[in-house]
């Protein structure tokens, strides 16, 4: 995997260009690729930290780090997305490892909760997450709640 430059910013620190790149990548994958029209702007972005993976000056990986008591009681990692152009290079794992590290830095060592797309359960298990709830449908995609103790 080529060198990724990781950048972490609060919402109000994002430049308009960074915000546009984030929205563009999230739409490319969650709306177009997964054929899932949904309300992406859910107000959680405003209170969250945004981890961007930049390669060759292009956003190729992203997560939203949500503080405790916003999505769940615990801190959360959401909107996990990688560009189709870099998949299969290990960037997804690097993105999640960086996200876990930054979450622990921002919110202290404590459990991290996620709402994972069900087909990625094995991937998240490999990172130390365990199933913590029943399978549920979100925007017609099966999800499962998981926690990293």
Task: Walk me through this protein's architecture.
This protein has 149 residues and is an alpha+beta fold. It has one domain: 3-Layer(aba) Sandwich (Aminopeptidase). Helices cover 27% and strands 35% of the residues. The chain contains 3 helices and 7 strands, in the order βαβββαβαββ. It has helices spanning 16-33, 91-107, 121-125, and strands at 5-10, 49-55, 58-66, 76-82, 112-117, 130-138, 141-148. A 4-stranded antiparallel β-sheet has the order 1-2-3-4, sandwiched between helices. The longest helix is centred in the first third of the chain and has 18 residues, at 16-33. It is globular and about 40 Å long. 27% of the residues are buried. The model has no long low-confidence stretch (mean pLDDT 93).
Mean pLDDT: 93
Helix content: 25-40%
| CATH-assigned fold name | Aminopeptidase
Total discrete domains: 1
* CATH top level class name: Alpha Beta
Order of strands across the widest beta sheet? Answer: 1-2-3-4
Contiguous low-pLDDT stretches (5 residues minimum) are none
Bin the strand percentage: 25-35%
The named CATH superfamily? Gcn5-related N-acetyltransferase (GNAT)
> What pattern of helices and strands is seen along the backbone?
EHEEEHEHEE
CATH architecture classification name = 3-Layer(aba) Sandwich
Total helical elements? 3
Biggest sheet overview? 4 strands, antiparallel
Number of strands: 7
Rg computed from alpha carbons, rounded to a whole number of angstroms:
14 Å
- What is the structural class? alpha+beta
Shape: globular
């Amino acid at each position: 995997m080529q060198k990724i430059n990781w950048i972490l910013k609060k919402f109000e620190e994002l430049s308009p260009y960074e915000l546009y790149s984030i929205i563009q990548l999230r739409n490319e994958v969650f709306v177009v690729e997964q054929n899932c029209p949904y309300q992406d702007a859910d107000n959680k972005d405003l209170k969250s930290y945004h981890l961007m993976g930049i390669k060759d000056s292009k956003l190729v990986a992203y997560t939203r780090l949500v503080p405790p008591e916003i999505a769940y009681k615990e801190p959360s990692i959401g909107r996990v997305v990688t560009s189709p152009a870099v998949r299969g290079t290990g960037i997804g794992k690097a993105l999640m490892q960086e996200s876990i590290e930054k979450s622990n830095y921002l919110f202290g060592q404590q459990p991290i909760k996620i709402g994972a797309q069900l087909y990625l359960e094995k991937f998240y298990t490999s990172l130390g997450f365990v199933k913590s709830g029943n399978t549920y449908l979100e925007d017609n995609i099966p999800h499962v709640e998981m926690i990293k103790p």
